[in-house]
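Action item from last meeting closed. Structure (172 res):
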């Protein structure tokens, strides 16, 4: 009686975590798709306005690569979480590894944004402009790391839960 109760409780917990991961990954997939479309539109506009010599020259490649990786990780988590609902062990492993890589990505991504958020062609830049730019970059870094820590903590809880022996026994 006790074993079946624990097993049912673990199944509900796994399904709950899987559904939460599916919802998060769908929302992040949509955000990544819109961001990639925005970056590609900006690149296209940049090419169209090249003859007008705009005062800004920003390298959008890091943003494009970062959001492409985010899109790929979201797809991996979405597919793996979907198959975890069917209690397939291979997909449990894929989900654990995908979440681990996602945590690493979440810790590196704000730094990429921080060091690439600079309008490198704007001249002249006054000291007030530089100070405002530094404050903006710092606050964006703080908010990015806040969200990264929240998601990383949740992903860590899911990884720990999926790695427990009694939960692994559900996946045959």
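Sequence:
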């Amino acid at each position: 009686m006790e074993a079946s109760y624990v097993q049912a409780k673990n199944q509900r917990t796994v399904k709950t975590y899987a559904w939460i991961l599916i919802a998060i990954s769908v929302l992040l997939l949509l955000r990544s798709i819109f961001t990639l479309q925005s970056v590609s539109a900006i690149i296209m506009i940049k090419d169209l306005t090249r003859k007008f010599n705009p005062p800004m020259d920003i390298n959008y490649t890091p943003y494009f690569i970062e959001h492409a990786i985010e899109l790929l990780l979201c797809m991996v988590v979405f597919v793996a979480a979907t198959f975890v609902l069917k209690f397939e062990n291979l997909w449990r492993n894929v989900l654990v590894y995908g979440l681990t890589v996602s945590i690493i990505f979440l810790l590196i991504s704000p730094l990429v944004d921080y060091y690439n958020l600079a309008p490198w062609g704007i001249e002249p830049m006054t000291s007030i402009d530089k100070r405002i730019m530094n404050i903006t970059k710092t606050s964006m870094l703080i908010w990015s790391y806040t969200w990264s820590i929240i998601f990383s903590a949740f992903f860590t809880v899911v990884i720990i839960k999926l790695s427990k022996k009694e939960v692994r026994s559900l996946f045959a």
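Note appended to the action item: The longest helix spans residues 2-48.
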